[in-house]
Design goal:
The chain is an alpha/beta fold. It folds into 2 domains: about 190 residues, 3-Layer(aba) Sandwich (Rossmann fold); about 180 residues, Glycogen Phosphorylase B (Rossmann fold), CATH 3.40.50. Helix content is about 40%, strand content about 15%. The mean pLDDT is about 95.
């Protein structure tokens, strides 16, 4: 008899957050690797879910669930209801919240991070409410909790009553697209498209407070006084509470905001950069770290949260709250070509430790363990 596996893919989209991209990488490999004669896969999409990869005959998509897109409502009711109605054996939520109760099926809940609890003053009351009052029920119902870094596991153990052996850590990986060789003319074409005329530092991701973008802008303006041949590129959509960044950049022609960048532009844009800046204040994993390594460019990033686990000694690690440390790191990259080349080589070797196939193989092992 086939095992019926439910997968919550509410946020799966290339245009979404990092979580949306993680879901794409994991789900397409799960569909490929889970044997058709042993597994029946039930996808629970959301309003914005995009399925742009091949699905097999053993995959069922619950299209009617798109209209029930509320995270809270799905956690309290719809995920559990549809799992029981369709007699699923196992449900795995890759989103923020999975079923807060269950009956007749096993449950694995993915937790990317608990940022709303750690930075409670900087998030919406709704997010904080879910972390404080809904997640404990979900954790009690879950057979296993899946996290992508030891740091997130430590946060969970510190803030919730969860047994250590109930939490499984499985690292993620960078995108393979960044490993590919890109013709120089393609890189130059993309640079021209975004009006980039100098060697550039690049930040990739949504512009929001935890990504530390205001300090990046301030550090650049400070070092720009000495170096005239550089610019700074923010490659990502404008998020929330970053008006100060746009204010300090309004008279600086060498700070470039691209807005959302599609993948066909993002890969050459990153590969053409002089250095990647990712001094994030907090990350559950930090995909841009491995993307920079795979792209073959040096990285300046944070010495906090999960990032040191991922970066190892292949990046310049700084205190993300120190503009001075960020400035000094940028100066090293600009002035010490030997150090820059050393970081590039170390980054490539560090990235080889991570792969999506390894990630998915470990997740499948967890499924099999739960279903024994």
């Amino acid at each position: 008899m086939k095992i019926k596996l439910g997968l919550d893919v509410r946020t799966m989209s290339e245009k979404g957050s990092g979580i949306g991209r993680v879901e794409i990488e994991i789900i397409k490999r799960l569909i490929e690797k889970l044997e058709e004669d042993k597994w029946e896969i039930h996808l629970f999409p959301g309003k914005e879910t995009v399925i742009n990869f091949k699905i097999k005959n053993n995959v069922i998509v619950y299209e009617n669930l798109r209209k029930h897109n509320s995270t809270l409502k799905r956690s309290i009711w719809f995920s559990s209801y549809y799992s029981m109605k369709n007699r699923l054996n196992l449900f795995h939520s890759l989103d923020f919240l999975g079923p807060s109760w269950k009956k007749g099926f096993k449950l694995i809940q993915t937790i990317h991070d608990i940022i709303p609890l750690i930075f409670s003053k900087e998030v919406s009351y709704k997010s904080l409410f879910m972390c404080k009052y809904i997640m404990p029920f979900m954790f009690k119902s879950a057979d296993y909790i899946l996290t992508f870094s030891q740091n997130t596991k430590n946060d969970l153990l510190k803030n919730y009553k969860i047994k250590d052996d109930k939490i499984k850590v499985v690292p993620l990986a960078g995108r393979d697209e960044f490993k590919k060789d890109i013709p120089e003319e393609k890189i130059e074409k993309v640079k021209k498209k975004y009006n980039i005329k100098k060697k550039y530092f690049i930040f990739t991701g949504t512009l929001e407070p935890k990504k530390n973008v205001v300090r990046i802008g301030k550090a650049f303006i400070n070092i720009k006084k000495k170096y005239n041949d550089i610019c700074l590129v923010f490659a990502g959509a404008k998020g929330w509470n970053v008006d100060e960044l746009y204010e300090i950049a309004k008279d600086e022609k060498d700070i470039i905001f691209t807005g959302f960048v599609p993948d066909e532009d993002l890969v050459p844009l990153v590969k053409g950069a002089f250095c990647s800046l990712f001094p994030s204040i907090y990350e559950g994993f930090g995909l841009p770290v491995l993307d920079a390594f795979n792209a073959g460019i040096p990285l300046i990033t944070s010495n906090t949260s999960s990032i040191p686990e991922i970066a190892g000694d292949a990046a310049i690690l700084i205190d993300p709250l120190s503009i001075e440390e960020l400035e000094n790191a940028m100066k090293i990259i600009l002035e010490n070509d030997g150090k820059r080349k050393e970081l590039i080589e170390k980054g490539k070797k560090q990235a080889e430790k991570f792969s999506w196939d390894k990630t998915v193989a470990e997740i499948i092992k967890l499924y099999e363990k739960v279903m024994l």
